[in-house]
Predict the 3D structure of the following.
Amino acid sequence: MNMVVCCKQVIDPEAPPASFSIDSAANKVIPPAGIPPVVNPFDEQAIEAALRIKDAVGGKITVISLGINLTRDVIKKPLSMGADELILLEDEAFEGGDSWSTAYALAMAIKKAGEYDIIFCGRQASDWDAGQVGLGIAEILGIPSVTVVKKAEVINGKARVERVVADGYEIVEVTLPALITITNELGEARYPTLRGIMAAAKKQPIIWKPADIEVEPSQIGAAGRRANLVKLFQPVREGKCEIIEGDDAADTAAKLAMKLRGLKVI
Amino acid sequence: MAEYKGVMVLGEVIDDKLAAITTEILGCGRRLADELKEELSCILMGGEVAKVADEAIAFGADKVYIAEDSLLKDYRTDSYIVVTEKIVQEATPRILLLGQTAVGRDLAPKLAFRLGTSLATDCLELEVDTKAKLLSATRSVYGGNARAIFTSESLPQMATARQKAMSPLERDDSRKGEIISVKVEIDPAEIRTDVIEKVEEEAAGIKLEDASIIVSGGRGIGGPEGFEQLEELAKILKGALGASRPPCDNGWTPTTAQVGLTGKIVAPDLYIAVAISGASQHLAGCSGSKNIVAINRDAEANIFKEARLGVVADWKQIIPPLTERVRELMAG
């Protein structure tokens, strides 16, 4: 199985909300001091989905990541987990894009990288939360897609997946090649082993510039945007929390129950 | 070059009725259409949906496009996109709205790329500049930590709305509208996915999305046994049991109980958050609640910024006496 996984380096979504701040003049988030970036957790789970298939039926996993100033030991983590090859679209021209220009660049890189059976993406990036790039890649490449998948296997040359829906899941079969987006219900991504880390340390990422993947400069990065970001801001949280205290736990609980009665919710 | 005019909504039908999200985006669409002085239309697709057309009109649509076919009975990307694309290309709406649901998440981005247009997903607010005729979409981003306002010059301007973020109109069965039957032409060979089986995992009883009281547990509950205690409280309150993501990821609760950005969006009268820290992704799911009560032993927990009432204590000390007091109050 030839598998491609798209990974994005993002600000750590587990960073405490208090550490979050915005530069309003630039409409950009200020990376929180002392908290290193991470691979988008849903993308790590996409790597895990690919590794489970590699464990079962063998294959090759190529990771592609678009960004600038990518932190090497962050973006190489998929290699430490067991992916085979890392391609970086690292150039100013790729920067500042939206779902459109990003999907276009990644799709062209995937075309250049060679044959593929399955493309895995995380269901959304934890920074912009758009959930579009994976589907955009599938549409540009003309392949079928299944979204929010929590389990993926290859059976008789097709992918058989479990797609999460509101009240449970569907078991779906899709012809290959296909693009699959992965959701957290897949389970925890494996930790890199020491051997994996050492093997990854020896591997150098392949770096592609726009000319390497034959893209129109006007279609990538900020130039290729179709959405305009007007404003980025933090919502103001109004309201105060009334803390209930009592002589002991039972007393506090009783006071809380009376408050709820007062609110007419019980 | 066709003129782009009007607001169009892609509706969803569940159990022969409009899905709640559809009534909400019709309400939003009606407001936008009125400001633009243009029409509001609604697409309904499925096996048999013609009977729901009148409901769509009663909730604000001027026109309803009915697309019926056995191949549309269950949602599939490849069949739904072909039919929607055809209707949109013929009707050329200025604005196209969908719900941020299992269908919307799957269909909207692929449709946007197929139409060559831009899409704003999971919108909390949608406004229109009547002079420039530009849709202004306010999205939740950075896991709920921030808001971003987007516009786009590509057409149609597409957006998906978060559930419970928009308000439906009062149902008015005296409203009149036009019903248009769409000829459905789908090549079955073009449908590249096959649903082998549907598995329901949701606990019986009140659905989280509909519950007026929810008792919800977080990482601090520590295991499935703790959730049994919360479930007892939820039962007495005649409410539903929810959870933040870690308990679901750990298998302490079914994943269908997850409240949050990538889980259920809830807006009950009362949301009791037990041992939940209040990460933004979780708050995105419950901030629509009328009253949030937080029980957490960490006084600095982010949940206290969102809660109306709080108790700073170990939940294990509070929940048993709280359950007893509530039982007494509700019996008396």
